[in-house]
Design a protein that fits this description.
Strand content: 25-35%
Distance between the termini: 17 Å
Number of strands: 6
Strand order of the largest sheet: 1-4-5
Oligomer: single chain
């Protein structure tokens, strides 16, 4: 699982401007980074993203979260 640290929300939002995420369980395209409307999987639930998500820290907030993988990371993987 990829992990990153951002100084503030601004940098996070600049890196992931689409605000689209992919469910770790069923690969559904989502606008909610925590809950899949198709299969009901939760990125913040018991099994989280099963290692297929994205973990980030916002330093200004002291916040660390695991979410579904942003679509921008899939675009980058396909270019490599």
């Amino acid at each position: 699982m990829q992990e990153e640290i951002f100084p503030s929300w601004r940098e996070f939002n600049n890196k992931f401007p689409t605000k689209l995420y992919v469910c770790s369980n069923c690969n559904e395209l989502l606008t909610d980074k925590y809950t899949c409307r198709k299969c009901g999987w939760r990125a913040d639930g018991l099994f989280q993203t099963m290692g297929n998500g994205y973990k980030y820290t916002i330093q200004s907030e002291g916040l660390t979260e695991e979410i579904f993988k942003p679509i921008e990371l899939f675009k980058k993987e396909s270019e490599d």
